[in-house]
Structures are given as C-alpha cells and as structure tokens.
Amino acid sequence: MTVAANNQSEKTLPGRKYIFGPVPSRRLGRSMGVDLIPFKTCSYDCIYCQLGRTTNKTIERKEWVPFDEVISQLKEKLYLKPDYITLSGSGEPTLFSRCGELIAKIKDVTNIPVAVLTNGSLLWLPEVRKSLLSADRVVPSLDAGSDHIFQYVNRPHPEISFKKMVEGLVIFRDEYKGQYWLEVFLLAGVTTPELEIDRLKSCIHSIQPDIVQVNTVTRPPAEMFAEPVPKERLERLAAQLFENSEVIADYRGVHEKQEFVSQRDDVLTLLQRRPCSVEDIASGLGLHRNEVVKYIEELLKEGKIEAKAQNQKLYYKAVI
Question: Which of 102, 163, 218, 226 is most exposed by smallest CB count within 10 Å?
Fold first, then answer.
C-alpha cells in the first residue's frame, strides 16, 4: 500500500466535535483534545485499546477532517485555558497529513503548549517526523520488545514491521529537540516475563527518551484477555526498564476540580437511570467519546458503576 497525502478532507459530519475537553489527563493535567481522525481509524489494532477494535486499519495519510473547521472550533474553546492542547482522539493522529501545519497554526493563535500522543508506528516516515518537530511534547508508545509480541499486542498494519517502528523511534530522538516521553504499556503474562522486560529495556536504551511512563490496563480493553499488571509489580518493573521512569499516576487534584466532578456526576446520574454504552452517554450528554471514557474509568475505579458485555457491545450501569 502506498502512503498517500492529499488535501481533500472527508465530508464534514453535521455537528461533529473535533475539540474535546479539557479532560483530566494523568500526563498533561487539564488537556484539551484535538480529534483529527475518524473513530477507530488507526495503524494498529491493539488488544488493550479502551476504544475497542480498529475498524479501519490503514497507513494512508490525508486530511481526514477539515483543517479550517478544526482551527475554528479550537479558537472557540481557548477561553477554557487548558494546560495542554493535545493531538490525540479516536485514532492515530499522525495519519492526519497536515499535522505540521496544524501545530504551526495552533502556535500562531495561542502560547498554550502542544502535545502529541501517538502510537509511534509511523515515525519511520521522514514526513511524519518532520511534522512533529515543532510540538512541545511528543509521547509515542512502545508496547513490545520483540516482533512476536509486537504482532500479538499491537496487531499492526502489514507495512509496519517491528524493526521499522523501533528505528523510527530512535531516529526521531536524534531529530527532535522537545520533551520526548515514551509510554510503555505492560500486559500481565505477555510483556512481563523477564525475557520480554530485558528486550524492552534494550529498545528503550536505544531510543533514549527523556522519561519512560509505564502503564497497564485500567479501562475495559478491546480484548478481555488483555490483563492488567498489579500496581506494586508495575512499580518494580518500571524501575527495571529505565532509570528515569514512573508509573503513570492519577492527577487527583485535577480530577477533583468542580468542572470535572460535575460532568462525572452527570454520567453517573444517567447510568443510574439505565445502562448505556460509551456512544449512548456521549450522545445523551453532548460529550465527546474520549471525555466519556475518562469519566467511565474514574467511576469504575470508585466502584460506582460496572461494565457488562451484551450483544458484542459494552454497557455500563450504576452499582446500587
């Protein structure tokens, strides 16, 4: 498959929100998300993804959403003064062919720092690396230290090899002058055996990020066999992987701000009335899907709601 870049966006969906939040982020405080890709359009189909299975696995780069409309919606929400403007959302943001232009335009209209949360799968492409150079913080992922585990966990597009992916992460480190944080997502019994930890450690040593943030399953994953690593073990493994590492912690001070508490309570009130999917909640409350996922995670942790699969779909209901 040839990587394509063009300036033709998909037809704009009536009322579609390209900007969401600010939402509480474990990494970035109050994060305003910029959603540049149609839902579950991605270069991976990760078994742990909280947004479900990838429905369009691709490495085609194009203007998936209208550039000018994204900027217009962003300007309307800048009064909320987030800590970061974050390119993330419903799919892999580097698939948006005008990423570099977008970052430059954001910097023209505000001095709020720009972060990019990416799976890192396309950094072997020079045009992708170039497009991210002006971001203040880039946070790619590394979920495996070997090709076998890479194929099992990330289920990548056929044109993305493990070797290409890691080489892209290494080369970008040499070119990028901003904050380069690497997220390592660990799965019990898959990436936690000593051999796999040693392989991950070797890859991280080659990449040399500023910091490694270790994560695991905290929300219902795409595949129920994706198991979390207990916190105590996660902390031990983080110390093994890289000298400057941490387990991603909750920003409780951010989560308890009134704006977040109120929206989380709205989600809980809705689920007290009837079971709902993420899509039901987003539609019913006028929230972006990614905002809903954040609140669902907190309510699950607090034991206030529970998840139940029905007809191959995940529904949430309040615990009475």
Answer: 163
